[in-house]
Structure formats: structure tokens, C-alpha cells
Amino acid sequence: MTTQAALSHLKVLDLSRVLAGPWCTQMLADLGADVIKVERPGAGDDTRHWGPPFLKDADGNDTAQATYFTACNRNKRAITLDMAQPEGQALIRQMAAGSDILVENFKVGGLAQYGLDYESLKAINPRLIYCSVTGFGQTGPYAERAGYDLMIQAMSGLMSITGHADEQPGGGPMRMGVALIDVLTGIYACSAILAAVEARHKTGAGQHIDMALLDVGMAVLANQAAGYLNTGQVPQRQGNTHPSLAPYQTFDTLDGSMLLAIGNDGQFVRFCDAAGQPGWAQDERFRSNTLRVKNREALVALMLPVTRTRSTADWTRLLEDKAVPCGPINTLAQAFADPQILARGLVLNQTLGMSPKRLEATDSAAFRSALPPAAAAGTATQVRTVANPMRLSATPTVLRRAPPTLGQHTQEVLAELGLDAAQIAGLRSRNVI
């Protein structure tokens, strides 16, 4: 029996580009929605060109396709359409009339000039759920500003609490290693859209969703924001230590370093016993987490000579059956070769234009030997993406399409709108598509 995906009944019109919007629509596509991505003719999404790195062809040479684009555009159908032309606008309105959801990340008011803003499309399709993703939201003094992830990391205060303290080597504000605010905005947007879908079941009406990167950047400050708002104390950068837990940081080992994340007193007692230092847990300075945070420097000074006596792997093996969180600090190469990652099938191997295949644990040697990815045959380009982490037992995520080439599905989608070959050829000749 074929299992139907959770969102297979939904149609999504994706007018977004770069990362936040496309991340949201890829989540919807993975859950089964039919997502049609609209791109500029000849250029496409900005991230198609954000390289290096680029995908490799069968001979190991760079293609024109940046790998960045593949991170957030799986399972979509892609068309090219010039919305600056009246014919292009008319086609988008026709698609919006038959869509459940529209996602866009133009500047505030940017689509109104084309008659593609929420109020205009609501008049055509009152059930439409219209999600706008911007840097600063639809209101406020910064509404018309462009916003990028790095700017939001800085403005939200996230960079001020990321990195080593000023007095330490390499100290200073530091950005995250990925555009995390973009990704989290995509996830929040997906949640908001699904909430709007649920609300539509009751009301029959769609609604406008206003998603702002800065709002998300502030929201995900989590415990750091709570601490400041309730005490007035401004959190400071402190590298890999934790403001409220100890020992919860990196430690040197015999062959490198490890991450030890002790979150309660029981874990600390078990760590001390395993490390052959039961007296640490009895020391009045370290009996509780609050005391350990207060006396962090003294505790770390005692621990470092001990952690340096074993390798990272030895520490991990020693502590794994004692419910004491401990592990290596992997490179991406080490992470993707990890047996747990392989066992969970988190890497998808796809040929552009073909169905994807999950890499199983038995493929680990093949995976390591195949980096960078090479095509299986001919001139086909291989692409690897990270599987969707949502695991639904009854309606699992679907894997239908590799990230599309520019305009790959233009003919197919326009034919579904009722255009014949001559009409499509005419649009192409007039550079509408």
C-alpha cells in the first residue's frame, strides 16, 4: 500500500529566493506539497551562483551550479518567469488562484507594483495563505530595509554572545558557521503556515503571515534573552563554556579535544567516579551546579590534567554507558562518516532529473571514497543533500525530485495551466519565460 504524504493535497507557489523562504518551502515539499518555484529567466535564484563550491560533472569538473542552491530546493518544480512583464504577472495570478500557499521574500511593498501583493491575490483567492519573509517585518522604522542573516546576527545581539571573550586569544564577536537565522526563520515560517492551514479548516479563509528575520533572531536568544530581561545583566561571550552549567564545555584530551556536557548533579557524580576522582563530587565547591558555575575556574583547573590522560575515543567509550554526555568535536567529513549518521540515512544521493536514493550504513566506504560526488554514468550530475529530519510513522516525508535545474519544469507547469505548445513558444520568444 502506498502511503500518502501529509501535505500531498497542498499546492505552494514559491516566489522566494536565497535561504529563509526556500528552506520553508523545501520543508513543505518534503512533507508532500506540490511546490512550484518561480525564478528569473536566465539568472534564477541568487544562490545558484553563490560558489565555490560548485557541483561536479562526471569528470570531476565544476559545473555552473553552486552547491548552496541544493541545500534548500529539493522536491520542487522550477519554472522561469519574468514578473516584470504583464504576461508574467498574469501567469503568477493564475497560479496563485489555484494555490493554497504563497511564500515570498521581496522587500516590503515590492510585489504591489505588479499586483501580486496579499490584498490583490486575496481578492482572487480568499483561501490563499500568503507568507512574507523580510529582514525586519512589514511594520516599524526598519521595515523597508533589506536584511541579511549576518546583519541580523549582529543586530539581534547573537554575535555579542558568540565567540571568545575580548581578553582571550581570538576574542571578539563571531558569526555562526551557518546562516542560522535564515534557517530558523524558514522553520518558523513553515510552522506558521501549517497553523494557518489548520485555521483555514475552521474558517475557510486564508491569511497573511508576516515573518521577520530580526523577530526570529530575538526569539531564539532563548535563555540568554530570559536572563537579561529578568535581571538586567548583559550576557558576555565566553567561548565554549555555558553561562548556567558547569562543566559544560570543551576539554583537551590526549589526542585533541572533546565536548563534555554535564547538565545535572547526578551526571557530575557519575563522571567523577568514572574519571577516578570521586572526591570532586564531595568537594564543597562543586556539590551543586550553581556552586560549580561559581567555581568554574577551579574545577576546570582540576579536570584538565585528568582529561588529557585519555584519548577522545577512550573518554567517549568510558562515559557512554553512564549517561554522561560526551563526544568528539567532528569536522563535517567526520560527522558524515559517523556510523550513526549513516544508520539514520541522513545523506541522500540524487542524480539531477532522477529520483533520490538514501545512503545506507553499508554505503559508508563508498560514500567516503566518492567525495566530491561523481556521476554514476554519462554526463549526469550527482548531488547529495541532507535528509529531512522529521520522521513521521504514518505519513513520512517524500523524496521525489532532485534540486531542479533552472526552468526545468516550465513547459510542464504551463501546460497544466492550459497553455498549448504554441502559446508557450510565444512566451519564450518574448522572454516572458
Total domain units = 3
The CATH superfamily of the largest domain turns out to be Crotonobetainyl-coa:carnitine coa-transferase, domain 1
Helix content: 25-40%
CATH architecture of the largest domain: 3-Layer(aba) Sandwich
Assess the beta-strand content as a share of residues. 15-25%
Look at the structure and give the CATH class of the largest domain: Alpha Beta
What value does the Rg take, in angstroms? Answer: 25 Å
- The best one-word shape is elongated
Largest sheet data: 6 strands, parallel
Helical stretch tally: 18
Report strand order across the widest sheet.
5-2-1-6-7-8
Runs in which pLDDT lies below 50 for 5 or more consecutive residues are 358-378
Count of individual beta strands: 14
Question: How far is the N terminus from the C terminus?
Answer: 39 Å
In the CATH hierarchy, the third-tier topology of the largest domain is known as Rossmann fold
Give the overall average pLDDT: 92
Indicate the structural class.
Answer: alpha/beta
